[in-house]
Write a structure and sequence with these properties.
CATH class of the largest domain: Alpha Beta
Mean pLDDT: 93
Largest sheet: 3 strands, parallel
CATH superfamily of the largest domain: HUPs
Shape: elongated
CATH topology of the largest domain: Rossmann fold
Low-confidence stretches: none
Helix content: 40-55%
Radius of gyration: 29 Å
Length: about 525
């Protein structure tokens, strides 16, 4: 299935997906017993709307999965996306409507709370699960969706739940030393669901009959004996995670740094159940633009739809690939650079030796979900340049206007001929409308800058509309280097151009911009800047 040279290079690659995959090769040197697929799992708690931090775990796990398929020479694999929708709602998320409805259902399993969005879903959890699955499907992930509610309610977890009761004391011995004294007094690995209130109860539990799943507890002042089977209970988080690993036979699951302690305790619990802890990678958390941890309940992270309004699926994948063990900011301001860097890395692939390809983020992303295109595809115009064009055209710019200018720069400019660029035109218009146009401010040039702009205008007067970007760039450079204008460096000259002509402190290669926007149109920009001097 895979070329021997590829397998050999992948096994020694320093790229993190291959290094993670090699953990599984060591776990199963001869493949998983019985030829069973190696099982990868991702987890999601649908207590709030899914954000990119949720999606990234599926993407990164998929990258490890594909890497393992290579280093193992084609061993079978499965990916389960698991939703913990039996968890009790602890607080009302900030970013949902109908808060009174949510308040009235605090404590109940997420899958048994009405949908506050009134969108026709069976529950709040079903709504959030659908949002996550919709994007996973749009991105093309190969996964199996599993909801905790389905497994608990159908009895699929019943055997594992009986085992939890059989090993109850061993689990308590693991967990109690990790808890404060007041929490020890009420802690139970099992959380019965009240027949009276429907809430998930945080109460001490006594095992009555492990084989039949019967426990005893207090519910609103009454001593109750109740089965924990068939959806009448759920497990505490760390015990639930371990039970899931055991019941499903999970071999690999990554998680965020905030779950480091959970990994340790759940690993001990799964061993107490007679199972084996999955291989694991702990990644750093995403931060918002204020440096705060992203939270589903706060809604301070980017949603998947927000990223796709201003960037592409590939750019999102690229940003998530890089340095998973380093904390990174996640806000709309990083999207344009992510788009362009993805295409820069993608363009490098054909000229890279195999070992460098294996470290190229675009190489991994192109293989994540069976991409069939050419590895070395390029964009004729960068997203950054496109954004500069759109910002100059103004908030009312249209797709048709943008493509008419692209015709100055691209032979046979046609959306059908350049679908990747067409996708970015719409996103550039949205980004400009929402973030650039409202704050755009072109400053007046200083005395020496105005003199340099007049020299630039005189140069452009002699240039034909068909002048190449490289020729234009050379002339712009020459003006910036002239001592009479007093620029300490070319960087100062280009910053002046960006701030006086484009209203930004950063910008594109000016030769490329002039070729795209047109010589005559650029002279009009210069005239407007000089009029403000």
């Amino acid at each position: 299935m895979f070329d021997e040279a590829l397998i050999a290079a992948a096994r020694v690659s320093k790229s993190w997906p291959f290094q993670e995959a090699m953990k599984l090769v060591k776990r199963y040197p001869d493949g998983k017993p019985g030829g069973e697929p190696v099982l990868f799992e991702t987890g999601y708690g649908p207590s709030g709307l899914p954000h990119i931090g949720t999606f990234q775990e599926v993407l990164r796990t998929t990258l490890v999965r594909r890497a393992y398929e290579i280093v193992s020479g084609g061993a079978p694999t499965r990916l389960v996306a698991f939703s913990d929708d039996m968890d009790g709602l602890r607080k009302v998320p900030d970013n949902v409507p109908n808060k009174a409805l949510m308040e009235a259902n605090l404590g109940k399993p997420l899958s048994r709370i009405p949908d506050p969005f009134a969108a026709g879903f069976q529950s709040f959890a079903h709504h959030n699960n659908a949002m996550l699955r919709d994007f996973l499907d749009r991105y093309g992930f190969d996964y199996e969706f599993v909801a905790a509610s389905d497994r608990y309610n159908s009895g699929a977890f019943d055997d594992a739940l009986r085992l939890v009761l059989e090993r109850y004391q061993a689990i308590m011995d693991i967990m109690l030393p990790t808890l404060r004294a007041e929490r020890q007094a009420t802690y139970s690995p099992v959380l019965p669901i009240s027949d009276k209130s429907g809430a998930v109860l945080q109460v001490p539990v006594e095992v009555v009959d492990a084989a039949n799943g019967i426990v005893r507890f207090e519910d609103e002042g009454e001593t109750v004996e109740q089965s924990i089977l068939g959806g009448k209970a759920k497990l505490q988080w760390k015990v639930d995670w371990a039970m899931r690993w055991f019941a499903l036979g999970v071999d690999y699951e990554m998680c965020g740094k905030d779950l480091t302690d959970s990994v340790t305790q759940s690993g001990r619990i799964v061993r107490a159940l007679g199972g084996r802890m999955p291989e694991n990678m702990i990644y750093e958390l995403f931060l918002d633009e204020n440096g705060e941890k992203i939270s589903k309940s706060k809604g301070n992270g980017l949603t998947i739809d927000e990223w796709l309004t201003y960037g592409t699926e590939e750019s999102l994948g690229f940003y998530l690939f890089r340095e998973p063990k380093s904390a990174k900011s996640l806000h709309v301001g990083i999207i344009p650079r992510a788009v362009d860097e993805y295409w820069q890395f993608r363009a490098k692939i054909p000229d890279q030796p195999l070992e460098q390809q294996l470290g190229n983020p675009a190489w991994h992303l192109l293989r994540a979900n069976g991409y069939k295109g050419g590895d070395g595809d390029t964009l004729p115009v960068s997203y950054g340049l496109l954004l500069n064009l759109v910002s100059v055209l103004g908030a009312g710019a249209t797709r048709e206007q943008v493509w008419s200018y692209l015709g100055n720069y691209i032979p046979d400019a046609d959306p059908a001929r350049y679908p990747d660029l067409e996708a970015l035109v719409d996103r550039a218009l949205a980004y400009n409308r929402d973030f650039v146009a409202p704050t755009l401010s072109r400053r007046a040039p200083s005395g020496n800058e105005a003199a340099a702009l007049r020299a630039l205008d005189a140069m452009l007067e002699k240039m034909p509309e068909s002048a190449s970007a490289e020729d234009l760039q050379t002339e712009v450079y020459e003006i910036g280097k002239r001592e009479e204008f007093g620029f300490e460096s070319l960087r100062d000259w280009f910053r002046a151009l960006y701030e006086t002509l484009l209203g930004s402190s950063q910008g594109p290669r000016m030769g490329s911009f002039i070729a795209l926007y047109g010589v005559a149109n650029t002279r009009k920009l210069i005239a407007e800047a000089l009029a403000a001097a």
